[in-house]
Every structure is written in structure tokens, then in C-alpha cells.
Design goal:
It is a single chain. The chain is an alpha/beta fold. It is built from six helices and five strands, in the order βαβαβαβαβαα. It has a single domain (3-124), classed as Rossmann fold, CATH 3.40.50.620. Helices cover 40% and strands 18% of the residues. Strands 3-2-1-4-5 form a five-stranded parallel β-sheet, with helices on both faces. The longest helix is centred in the middle third of the chain and has 17 residues, at 92-108. The protein is globular, with a radius of gyration of 16 Å. The protein binds 4'-phosphopantetheine. 4'-phosphopantetheine binds next to strand 1 and helix 4.
């Protein structure tokens, strides 16, 4: 049985993530979608919130399991008997960072291979950071994130409606 881990910050889930996880689920018997900590980023959503949004967005894909994990990716892979790490590659700008991580992970555990899926062209320049910026200023994120999580993300991030110091 081929088991894969699809890790990420997922802060929040985008159409790009849905595309990669859906395609990974067709390639492997079981895919763990792992909400992880990227030490270089401060997330806007808690790990549990990110997991809940992913559960809504990926509903209906039978062979996936959404989990949170605080630690090294290779340790998670070993714990779950996964031999593959699946990541999406967007523009060339992703390449160096992803290459570095793949090499580091392979050095830590040579039984685990990283497989890159190329992002579909419409998601080439889509990122969670873009979604967050648009949402916090009240812009339209429909089409960038799954419809079923659109309102959750808008409500949570929109700065215009937030009560601060008792004033709107
Ligand atoms: O969506 P992101 O932020 O690009 O995902 C990066 C993530 C979370 C997969 C990466 O930071 C990660 O694997 N974090 C766990 C710690 C780890 O194992 N790092 C790799 C060794 S350098």
C-alpha cells in the first residue's frame, strides 16, 4: 500500500491545495494531509481552524485523513508508514526553497521520497498570503478558495467589521 503525506501550512486552504490533494489522492492509496508548523511563518489561523477549513474543503475524498502535527515532517512520515511526501510546485520562485526542503528531508530519512506535482496553470500565482491580503481588506476571494469556506475565511479575516477598543 502506497502511503503519502501532503504537508503544508494551509493558512488558509486555497484552490491550489485542493487541486494538489485531489490529484495526490488518485496516485496513492492513502494520503495524510498534514497541517504543520512552518517556523518561518506566523499563521493567521490556528492549527485546529486550518484543519476544520481543510475538512470542509476536501469533503468527499475517501482516502485522505487530515491531521495536525508539530514536529519534523520525516518523523510524521515514519509514524504513518508513509514513503512519499507530496508537494505542489508553482512558479520558479518555489523551486529553490522546495528543493532545499526535499534534500534536507531526504538526508534525514532516505526512505522517504519527495514527489512534486506541478500546480495547474490557473493556480500558478495563487497563495494563502494573497488570499489573506484580499480577505482582510474586504476583496473577493471567491474562485481562489473553495466556495464552502469562502464566508468562514472572509468573516474571520475582514478587518473592516472587527470591533477594536470597543468601537467599530
Ligand atoms: O505550506 P508551507 O508553509 O510551504 O509548508 C512548509 C512545511 C510546513 C511543510 C515545512 O515548513 C515543514 O515541513 N515543517 C515541519 C518541520 C520540518 O520537518 N522541516 C523540514 C526540514 S528542513
Amino acid at each position: 500500500m502506497a502511503i503519502a503525506v501532503c504537508p503544508g501550512s494551509f493558512d488558509p486552504v486555497t484552490m491550489g491545495h485542493v487541486d494538489i490533494v485531489t490529484r495526490a489522492s488518485r496516485l496513492f492509496d492513502k494520503v495524510y494531509v498534514a497541517v504543520m508548523k512552518n517556523p518561518a511563518k506566523t499563521p493567521a489561523f490556528s492549527a485546529e481552524e486550518r484543519k476544520a477549513l481543510l475538512s470542509k474543503a476536501l469533503k468527499g475524498i475517501e482516502n485522505i485523513e487530515i491531521i495536525t502535527f508539530d514536529g519534523l515532517l520525516v518523523d510524521l512520515a515514519a509514524e504513518k508508514d508513509a514513503t512519499v511526501i507530496v508537494k505542489g510546485l508553482r512558479a520558479v520562485s518555489d523551486y529553490e526553497y522546495e528543493f532545499q526542503m526535499a534534500l534536507a528531508n531526504h538526508k534525514l530519512n532516505s526512505n522517504v521520497e519527495t514527489v512534486f506535482l506541478t500546480t495547474s496553470s490557473e493556480n500558478m500565482f495563487l497563495s494563502s498570503s494573497t488570499v489573506k491580503q484580499i480577505a482582510c481588506f474586504g476583496g473577493e476571494i471567491r474562485g481562489l478558495v473553495p466556495d464552502c469556506v469562502c464566508e468562514d475565511i472572509k468573516e474571520r479575516l475582514y478587518l473592516g467589521g472587527r470591533v477594536e477598543n470597543g468601537k467599530k
